[in-house]
Structures are given as structure tokens and as C-alpha cells.
Amino acid sequence: MLNKSEIQGLVSGLSQRLNTPPEQILSNIENGNLSSIVNKMNSSQAQKLQSILNDPEQSQRVLNTPQAKALLKKLMG
After folding, report:
1. What's the pTM?
2. Where do the H-state alpha helices sit in 1-77?
3. Pick from 49, 74, 77, 43: which is nearest to 62 by CA?
4. Domain boundaries along the sequence of the chain
5. How many Å apart are CA 16 and CA 40, to the nearest integer?
6. CA 60/CA 53 separation, integer angstroms
7. Which comes out higher in pLDDT, residue 70 or 3?
8. Cβ atoms 3, 57 nearer than 8 A
9. Which tens digit of pLDDT belongs to each residue from 1-36?
10. To 10 degrees, what angle do helices 56-63 and 22-31 make?
11. Of 5, 12, 11, nearest in space to 53 by CA
12. Any idea what the Cα angle at residue 13 is, between residues 12 and 14, rounded to 5°?
């Protein structure tokens, strides 16, 4: 299971590798729109993402990161 630091690192790494802002990655995850993310990933990255999404506790950790909270605050007003 990934800890909070590992999850933040994963989102940050994905952001850099996919040339996509972390906020957009988190937004796509939140909205269930993963095809645009997964299509840009190698198999190892896709497997890690799937692991997080299949585990409600890990998914919640992602949503509790400062980046996700900031994004949700922006989206919710």
C-alpha cells in the first residue's frame, strides 16, 4: 500500500512525465476520466494508478493530499 508521500510523488511524477498539471490529473481521477491519463502511461505507471483506484483507502489518501484539496477548493468555490 502506498503512503501519502508516495502518492504525492506518483502524482507529481505523472504530471512531469505526461506533461500534465497535477491538478488536471487529480481532476481526471476525481471525475473518473482516466483514459486521457492511462493512454499516456507506460504499463508500470498504469499498474500503480490502477492499484490506487482499486483501493478505496489509497484513493482517499490521494484526495486528501494538499494538491487535491486545493483543486477541490477551486472547483467547489
Report:
1. 0.49
2. 4-18, 22-31, 35-38, 43-54, 56-63, 66-76
3. 49
4. 4-76
5. 12
6. 9
7. 70
8. no
9. 556 777 777 788 888 888 888 888 878 877 878 787
10. 140
11. 11
12. 90
pLDDT, position 37? 76
Give the residue among 60, 28, 56 at the shortest CA–CA distance from 41: 28
Q: Which cell numbers hold the place of 66?
A: 494538499
In the prediction, which pLDDT does 58 show?
A: 86
As given in the structure block, the three cell numbers for residue 46 are 498504469
For residue 71 the three cell numbers come to 483543486
Quick one: pLDDT at residue 30? 76
